[in-house]
Amino acid sequence: MSSTVPASAHAVVVGAGMVAHRFVESLLARAGESWRVTVIGEEDRHPYDRVGLTSFFGGSTPDDLTLDRSVLDDERVRFVRGDAVARIDRTARRVTTKRGLSVAYDHLVLATGSYAARLAVDGFGWDGCFVYRTLDDVESLRAFVERRSRELGRALTGTVIGGGLLGLEAAGALQGLDVECTVVQSSDRLMSAQLDLPAGDALRRLIQSRGISVRTGAVTTRIDADRGGRVTGLEFRDGGYERTDVVVFTVGVRPRDELARGAELAVHERGGVLIDDGCRTSDARILAIGEVANYDGMCVGLVAPGYAMAEVAATRLLGGAASFPGYDLSTKLKLSGVDVASFGDAFGETPGALDVVYADPVGGVYKKLVLSDDAKTLLGGILVGDASAYGALRPLVGGALGGDPAAYLMPEGGVAAPTGDLPDEALVCSCNSVTAGTIRQAVHEEGCTDVAAVKSCTKAGAACGSCVMMVKKIVGAELAKTGAAISNALCEHFDLSRRQLFDAVRVSGLTTFSAVIDRFGTGRGCDICKPALASILSTLVGHHVLDGENAALQDTNDHVMANLQKDGSYSVVPRIPGGEITPEGLVVIGEVARDFGLYTKITGGQRIDLFGARLEQLPEVWKRLVDAGFESGHAYGKSLRTVKSCVGSTWCRYGVQDSVGMAVNLELRYRGLRSPHKLKLGVSGCARECAEARGKDVGVIATEAGWNMYVGGNGGFTPRHAVLLAEGLDDAGLLTAIDRFLMYYIFTADRLQRTAPWFEDLEGGIDELRSVIFDDSLGICADLDAAMAAHIGSYEDEWRATLEDPEKVRRFASFVNAPTTPDPSLAYTAERGQARPATDEERASGGVLIAGTILEVRR
Question: Are 119 and 239 a contacting pair, CB within 8 Å?
Answer without folding.
Answer: no
